[in-house]
TrEMBL record:
Residues 200-355 form the Mvd1 C-terminal domain. Performs the first committed step in the biosynthesis of isoprene-containing compounds such as sterols and terpenoids. The keyword Isomerase does not apply. Residues 13-186 form the Diphosphomevalonate decarboxylase-like N-terminal domain. It comes from Solanum pennellii (Tomato). The chain holds residues 5 to 359 of 421 of the full protein. This is Diphosphomevalonate decarboxylase. The gene is LOC107015872.
Amino acid sequence: SQKWVLMVTAQTPTNIAVIKYWGKRDENLILAINDSISVTLDPAHLCTTTTVAVSPAFNQDRMWLNGKEISLSGGRYQNCLREIRARANDVEDKKKGVKIAKKDWENLHVHVASYNNFPTAAGLASSAAGFACLVYSLAKLMNVQEDNGRLSAIARQGSGSACRSLYGGFVKWVMGKEENGSDSIAVPLVDEKHWDELVIIIAVVCSRQKETSSTSGMRETVETSALIEHRAKEVVPKRIIQMEEAIQKRDFATFTHLTCADSNQFHAVCLDTSPPIFYMNDTSHRIISCVEKWNRSEGTPQVAYTFDAGPNAVLIARNRTYAALLLQRLLFHFPPNSETDLNSYVIGDKSLMED
Ligand code: PMV
């Protein structure tokens, strides 16, 4: 019969890079010019929920993002759909009396409904959670047998940073050497329990969409910046080694030093781009000064900051005590709805909220 529908729903958190990915060596396959390391957030706060459905009644692939239909014709969606379909297997739902043979998937269409519980494309890595969740849920629907590493290489073709959201905890995206991208995959470093005293607070400085997409920004930086090659070849490889060690040892001072320096260097290569790209604004700069001053007065760093392709501050506190003190400070210096455009705080970790 034409009446059946099979559905799968999945939830994927976003991730925040502490050693940034910026620059592609292959734009179609999305292959990076350097390794990167990120932390995956708690799914309760910043995540994408995606439902994928298949039915013989559907006559084309369609997708809705936050309730609005979007086009799936772009290369990134097409690459993900094609790669997952190519790995589909037999599926049987006895209750519904549905049997889909491996070869049937070519002729079946999917409908996708995806929701972000945070602002889309405002530098909060919405595409990371989005593509990771799309690939993961389609893989479940189509009974794809690949492990998360192989799925990460497919999610990567949707959005580079998405490959890191297939795992929790701290994750490394290895840039790889192969031209076909087969070794450009995410690797879990430590799981979410390893360093669970960290608390992440996101100061939503501005929830509007960013002006320069990461794709065009990266392209312009790679084409025009005199500093990007030095960063990718000389600086990041050393930082990756140091960051992995700092994470293993839970060495917060080194972690903070590397995280802040890498965020600042990423924004420096943006400024070194022609025409220059400004992702941070005055409020972002004031938050940096405030955290730097505080860390110096404490003698040892208590809070790390990092900014992606937008003005929102991601603040990582050493523990709950410092997270609470940080919030106090932020609320004092940057009260929500003041004349600064800072409008809300998101707690990216469960620990502060639970008791
Ligand atoms: O994967 P994209 O195109 O969303 O690029 C992400 C770039 C940064 O967020 C700035 C850095 C990173 O590694 O996530």
